[in-house]
What we know:
Oligomer: single chain
CATH architecture: Sandwich
Number of strands: 9
CATH topology: Immunoglobulin-like
Number of helices: 2
Keywords: Signal
InterPro entries: CHRD
Number of domains: 1
Order of helices and strands: HEEEEEEHEEE
Shape: elongated
Protein name: CHRD domain-containing protein
Pfam families: CHRD
Mean pLDDT: 87
Strand content: 35-45%
Signal peptide: 1-16
CATH superfamily: Superoxide dismutase, copper/zinc binding domain
Distance between the termini: 51 Å
Strand order of the largest sheet: 6-3-2-1-9
Helix content: 10-25%
Amino acid sequence: MKRTFAYLMTAFVATAMTVTSCSPIKDAPDKKDTVEFVGTLNGSQEVPSNSSAATGTMTGTYNKVTKELSYTINYTGLTPTAGHFHLSPGGPGVNGGVIIPFSSLTSPITGKSTLKQDQENALMEGRLYVNLHTAALPAGEIRADVKRKAL
């Protein structure tokens, strides 16, 4: 009887541990389906930096299941001639190529884009940035490195 009880308890504990270890934990940061991102646009983040008084913010949500990035960019103090997300091969402080052009430049700029795997990797690694260009500063007047929102 004692031996049977001990055997059943061992089997129960092993089963319980297996079931709970396989269950998704949606509240863990890397287990959620969505990840929040933020950025603050200003001239000091441009490469090279500038003294623009223009400012802005970027907020976004990335859905890891659908691979879709939804974003909103608000800005003041400039009239952009172009704007987009760039992928920086070297991370913050390094310029890179355009991956998502904005279809409208009126604040707030809103949009959605489905990312390719290399773009998703760059987003998660902090290698994307938002850039707004103007006639006065065609290489970029204000920029924001896109970072995970602090929990």
